[in-house]
Automatic annotation (TrEMBL):
Domain AMP-binding enzyme C-terminal per the UniProt entry, residue ranges: 434-509
GO MF terms held by the record: phosphopantetheine binding
Domain AMP-dependent synthetase/ligase: 21-375
Domain of life of the organism encoding this protein: Bacteria
Name assigned to this protein: Amino acid adenylation domain-containing protein
GO cellular component: cytoplasm
Matching PANTHER family: FATTY ACID SYNTHASE, NONRIBOSOMAL PEPTIDE SYNTHETASE
InterPro entries linked to this entry: AA_adenyl_dom, AMP-bd_C, AMP-bd_C_sf, AMP-binding_CS, AMP-dep_synth/lig_dom, ANL_N_sf
Record GO biological process: amino acid activation for nonribosomal peptide biosynthetic process; secondary metabolite biosynthetic process
Length: 523
């Protein structure tokens, strides 16, 4: 693979991503579906689009130190907008267009963006009128003229925020994870050294733009001079369309959460096996069920499988090649031992570093891709950006991940659980506490506990156990409505169970294990 590291010394996202454009302007950067056909955008065209968007955004008053909210899925037009923000020194905040108004309002109020950009033609949102709203399409940006403001900062520096990712927060307010250019590029360069992507790859990207795997896909793919093929979101639930797109785009690698493969394995195994250009996959966000991974390998002998592990707070922290063949007795996959440039420490509950094989500890990540902190929340930041437990007096910081793991005999780590109540549903991060707070906000709810339990098809799903307030009656329909209006779809419980009282543990806490059993039994 052409090693883009060092060849284009870059300290901002746009410089890193457009580096290859100088060398291979006619190479396809993005292959995407537009108007029912496949369209190719070259690196030169993308670079010119970034210039045009940067001029339009500057006209709209966007400059160093601002935030720009961008509602979109991955596309060449959206990428041009993100990179234009980076060039102007504004942090972009990618938001899923399907996010409910109340949650977008929370993000807009928290970040006070100078501009809120939405895809042309979407229905208006109920938002405070203080924020300027712009519309974009492949042909450009329609933005209100901005009030030119006195800029105290001119140049962008690598430690400035490149993007904010809002994720579920236990307090009920979404948490903004702030990544600097330096952190994002340090991770992307670590991925290049692994290596994840080769310059002749066509990388099919399947994550929402608001999920940092998609930013990784575009960053590493374009930064390495390869081609990005963003998969239309609606194809993910239509196996034949998805396979058709992968075939027509000539995808050599597919990145995404493990659950994206389930419908293909179940409904179109033959067409999946016929994808003769497919040579690798990268999965992130949650464990890959081993039975499904074996099945995928049967259909594609020799397929390279990379397990990409980690939290948005360090972009991720480790890559591991999944062995081929997968040992018959394998119970779980290794997550590796840190990406090139990162170091993973295991710390047990009394704070001492453990490294005896098999000893479980909480992963602490020492790496150059540490996030800058949670937006406007120094207390929550201090909880997870902590002194290096090996050298507490060194001034070195590590990310306390909340992930439990043990070291195998081969020195690689195996993820085996969480220290808190974060769960993943189809790779989406959910703090159960946030779901419970939303339910408890309802006046007729006396107690509420949310648990994740595997449904019949193995897919984890969210269950809510609700105890109505004394004498009140509460209906699932109104609870669902409240959840739908305040949280992304993936956080709306799939099943509601109404109890007269909660099962309790010996020390009087809700017995989540018993409730998870009830959830499993109820499927
Ligand atoms: N590969 C795995 N196997 C199993 N459990 C995983 C994996 N990757 C995460 N997780 C879990 O998800 C948590 C974090 O969730 S997150 O903040 O939403 N981030 C994510 O999921 C995605 C994460 N940023 C990421 C991962 C890889 C590449 C890129 Br680029 C980005 C981790 O702390 C783990 O508990």
């Amino acid at each position: 693979m052409t090693d883009a590291v060092g060849r284009f010394p870059a300290d901002t996202l746009d410089q890193f991503v457009l580096g290859p454009a100088a060398r291979t302007p006619d190479k396809p950067a993005v292959i995407e579906r537009a108007g029912g056909a496949l369209v190719t955008v070259t690196y030169g065209e993308l670079a010119r689009a970034v210039d045009a968007r940067a001029a339009a955004l500057a006209e709209a008053g966007v400059g160093t130190g601002d935030r720009v909210v961008i509602e979109s899925q991955t596309s060449a037009a959206a990428i041009a907008l993100l990179l234009a923000c980076s060039r102007l020194g504004a942090a972009f905040v990618p938001v899923d267009p399907d996010t409910p108004d109340l949650r977008v309002r929370a993000i807009v109020e928290a970040t006070d963006p100078v501009l809120h950009i939405r895809p042309a033609g979407r229905p208006a949102r109920e938002l405070p009128s203080t924020t300027a709203v712009a519309e974009f399409s492949p042909d450009g940006l329609v933005a209100p003229a901005g009030k030119p403001r006195q800029r105290r900062r001119r140049a962008v520096v690598g430690t400035d925020p490149a993007y904010l990712i809002f994720t579920s927060g236990t307090t009920g307010q979404p948490k903004g994870v702030v990544l600097s250019h330096h952190a994002a590029l340090a991770f992307y360069r670590g991925a290049q050294r692994f290596p994840v992507v080769a310059a002749d790859d066509v990388v099919a990207s399947t994550s929402p733009l608001a999920f940092d795997v998609s930013l990784f896909d575009l960053g590493v793919t374009l930064g390495s001079g390869a081609t990005l093929a963003p998969v239309p979101r609606e194809f993910l639930s239509f196996p034949r369309r998805l396979l058709g797109f992968l075939r027509d785009a000539g995808a050599t690698v597919v990145h995404g959460v493990p659950s994206l493969w389930r419908p293909l394995l179940r409904h179109e195994p033959d067409d999946l096996a016929a994808l003769d250009r497919l040579r690798g996959i990268l999965f992130a966000g949650e464990n890959f069920p081993l039975a499904e991974l074996r099945r995928l390998r049967e259909l594609h002998p020799g397929l390279r499988v990379v397990n990409a592990f980690g939290a948005t707070e360090t972009v991720a922290c480790s890559f591991a090649e999944v062995p081929d063949p997968l040992p018959a007795d394998a119970e779980r996959l290794s997550i590796g031992d840190g990406y090139p440039g990162a170091e993973l420490l295991l710390v047990d509950s009394d704070g001492s570093v453990v490294d005896a094989p098999g000893a479980v500890g909480e992963i602490h990540v020492r790496c150059p891709s540490l996030f800058s902190g949670y937006w406007d929340d120094p207390a929550a930041t201090r909880q997870v950006l902590v002194p290096d437990p090996l050298e507490p007096r060194s001034g070195q910081l590590v990310y306390r991940s909340g992930d439990l793991a043990y070291r195998g005999a081969d020195g690689e780590l195996y993820f085996c659980g969480r220290t808190d109540s974060m769960v993943k549903i189809r790779g989406n991060r959910i703090e159960l506490g946030e779901v419970e707070r939303r339910l408890l906000d309802h006046p007729t709810v006396g107690a509420a506990v949310a648990v994740a339990a595997p449904a019949a098809d193995g897919e984890p799903s969210l269950h809510a156990f609700v105890v109505p307030r004394q004498g009140a009656t509460v209906g699932a329909a109104e609870l669902v409505e409240r959840c739908r209006r305040t949280m992304p779809a993936y956080m709306v419980p799939a099943r509601f169970h109404f109890l007269t009282e909660l099962p309790l543990t010996a020390n009087g806490k809700a017995n989540r294990t018993a409730l998870a059993e009830l959830a499993r039994a109820a499927r």
